[in-house]
Design goal:
The chain is α+β, with helices and mostly antiparallel strands. It has two helices and five strands; from the N terminus they run βββαββα.
């Protein structure tokens, strides 16, 4: 049985096993600028510092090809 999660951001359901969690704001902005909108966005805490962080959830399948482009981009 697959447990779906309700997204507060997009009013949709998604399977967490089919997603990636990103904390890197620049990588999230890159994906979003290419037309891949996050499935969910939520606040969490950095386990080391206890500081608040923003977590972006993206579809693993939708970002697969863009990941190579992200890794090969000019710095």
């Amino acid at each position: 049985m697959i447990n779906k999660v309700n997204s507060d951001y997009r009013n949709k359901q998604y399977n967490p096993g089919d997603t990636i969690r990103l904390l890197n704001q620049k990588q999230c902005a890159f994906y979003w600028s290419k037309g891949i909108e996050p499935l969910d966005i939520y606040i969490s805490k950095d386990f080391k510092t206890g500081e608040p962080i923003i977590v972006y959830i993206f579809s693993r399948e939708e970002t697969k090809e863009l990941y190579s482009e992200w890794c090969n981009r000019e710095h």
